[in-house]
Amino acid sequence: MKQTIASLAVVVAGGFLLASCQSSPKVAPPPSGKSASLLSMEQVAIAAHKCWIASKDPAFKSYQMANELNSFSGTPRFLLVPAKHYGGKPLLVVQAQGNSRRVDAFGPLMADPLGARIGSDIARWQTGNPSCSAAA
Predict the structure, then answer these.
(1) Which of 9, 42, 115, 131 could form a Cys-Cys staple with 110, CB 3.0–4.6 A?
(2) What is this structure's pTM?
(3) Using the 8-state DSSP alphabet, how is residue 63 labeled?
(4) Taking phi first (over 0 means left), then psi (-120 to 50 degrees means alpha), and beta for anything else, what does residue 98 get?
(5) Beta partners for 105?
């Protein structure tokens, strides 16, 4: 009996000793190195491509999307250009600058009736809601 208690005490002491050697609790992983503007623009660009282009939305049928997210100028952006003239003048520019999560949209399409929808879609996507349409 005394031998069993002694063995148990050794095992418990060994457990405490091992537990004290454990590494400290893990902290949150370091940031990915992406700026706030790039993170925000990635979110918006993925949703825009999915909802406007890949879904073949009739309102955006005559446009193509040109991604420029990996800009070294600190201004990640994407453009909507005429589908039949990819090198043409952008009709919509959606961008964020520096370390801000604020996304700006400008260009001729914003003055078009489609501009209100573009603005509300971008505002929704910027909050993290990837839905293609506003909730009813």
Answers:
(1) 115
(2) 0.71
(3) E
(4) left
(5) 94
